[in-house]
Amino acid sequence: MEYTQGIPKDESPRSLAQRLGLPFSNYLLLSRALTHRSYLNEHPEAIEDNERLEFLGDAVLDFLVGAWLYNHYPEMAEGQLTKLRSALVCTDQLAAFSTQIKLGQAMKMGRGEVETGGRQRLALLCATFEALIGAIYLDSGIPAVSRFMEPLLEPAVDQIFSSGRMQDAKSKLQEWVQAHGNGAPTYQTVSADGPDHAKIFEVEVFINGQKHGHGTGHSKQVAAKAAAQEALDGLKMY
Predict the structure, then answer these.
(1) Which of the residues 130, 139, 202, 204 is marked catalytic?
(2) Which of 39, 92, 106, 109 could link 113 by a cystine bridge, Cβ 3.0 to 4.6 Å?
(3) Considering 58, 139, 202, 230, which one is annotated as catalytic?
(4) If you classify domain 13-163 with CATH, what class do you get?
(5) Are 110 and 36 spatial neighbours (Cβ–Cβ below 8 Å)?
């Protein structure tokens, strides 16, 4: 499915909906889904940011992706289904979906956030994608979310299988350092931003005191796994 033809700079919510084939009846809802809290500081006419929709979209994605996997992989064991769902709804993957559909061009942010690369920041791309899912659900229900997500899920699953991401990155990193005679990796939480229901954690992983990876996620565990994966990606270069 092609989502990226003729995208204007600062794409409007209506244009985004038309491009993605989303028959929104409430464009104010879609506009809210695209609104980062930094936008409110510069635009007092904006009423609400997207954090509540992000919370809702996160729950909808967990359910929908779980149901999709259950139906598409009837022979897969529960543990593997859980790992695959986690891989499909992690920060990096949802940010990749955002990038795939060019969602960054429609995100409404404060000028400072835009100038510091907010449209390319993985955590913000992930959060906005979740908010978009929450808005689709409220506007049109689960069937509409399913129609939107299905073309994204199957290629993502193929890529997860081919890349070996089903294996736990922290365990793989632990095996690597042991095999090379290094001390165990250590993980440090460097920040936790956002409201309690939608915090974004940043975690760094160190091997023998040297930083090898950085990751973000909605929990410390997810962020640590992302950091371990980045470390593995770098170590493969040696």
Answers:
(1) 130
(2) 109
(3) 58
(4) mainly alpha
(5) yes
pLDDT in tens, 31-43: 999 998 888 888 8
Least confident of 81-90, 163-172, 200-209: 163-172
224 neighbors 170 (Cβ within 8 angstroms): yes
Position with higher pLDDT, 22 vs 236: 22
Pairing of strands 200-207, 210-217: antiparallel
Residue 215 bridge partners (DSSP): 203
Residues 68-120 pLDDT 10s? 999 999 888 888 898 899 889 988 899 999 999 999 999 998 888 888 887 88
Q: State yes or no: is 58 an active-site residue.
A: yes
Q: Across the strands, what pairs with 192? A: 201
DSSP assignment of 183-237: PPPEEEEEEEES-GGG-EEEEEEEETTEEEEEEEESSHHHHHHHHHHHHHHHHTT
Residue ranges per domain, the chain? 13-163, 169-235
The answer to whether 19 and 32 have CB atoms below 8 angstroms apart is no
Whole-prediction pTM? 0.71
